[in-house]
């Protein structure tokens, strides 16, 4: 089955446990984006709700483009009282990476 929203294979059509060639993470704490981070992202993008998981890519979220990327990162820094280096931001591949980076700064 192909997900029409993103044009990628779902588990039913592709290899079991894989979505779009990426190994699907087991649902649970490791695969979750915390509600506070999700709220900041959705507020910055002016979205009421959107499914955001650890493996979600920025390009999969409406309104998240290169221009909004900087404002989202700044909003996260301001909301949580942290600072990210340019290198840290450049290494982010998905929302799970952002959640892990934020968690590391809050410890």
Describe this structure in words.
This protein has 107 residues and is mainly alpha-helical. It has two domains: 1-27, no CATH class; 32-106, Non-ribosomal Peptide Synthetase Peptidyl Carrier Protein, Chain A, CATH 1.10.1200.10. It is built from four helices and four strands; from the N terminus they run E-E-E-E-H-H-H-H. The strands form two sheets. The protein has a two-stranded antiparallel sheet with strand order 1-2. Strand 3 and strand 4 (22-23) form a beta hairpin. Helix 1 (35-45) packs across helix 2 (66-80). The radius of gyration is 14 Å and the shape is globular. Mean pLDDT is 80; it is low at 1-29.
List the SSEs and their pairings.
Elements: E1 2-3, E2 8-9, E3 18-19, E4 22-23, H1 35-45, H2 66-80, H3 86-90, H4 95-106
Antiparallel strand pairs: 1-2, 3-4
Task: Please name the defining characteristics of this protein.
Non-ribosomal Peptide Synthetase Peptidyl Carrier Protein, Chain A; mainly alpha; single chain; globular; 4 helices; two-stranded antiparallel sheet
Shape field? globular
Number of helices: 4
Mean pLDDT over the full residue set = 80
How many extended strands?
4
State the CATH topology of the largest domain.
Non-ribosomal Peptide Synthetase Peptidyl Carrier Protein, Chain A
* Distance from first to last alpha carbon: 41 Å
Question: If you compute it from the alpha carbons, what radius of gyration comes out, rounded to the nearest whole angstrom?
Answer: 14 Å
Low-confidence stretches: 1-29
Name of the CATH class of the largest domain: Mainly Alpha
What topology, given as strand order, has the largest sheet? Answer: 1-2
Number of domains: 2
Overall structural class, as computed from helix and strand content, comes to mainly alpha
Strand content: 5-15%
The appropriate CATH architecture of the largest domain is Orthogonal Bundle
Relevant CATH superfamily of the largest domain: ACP-like
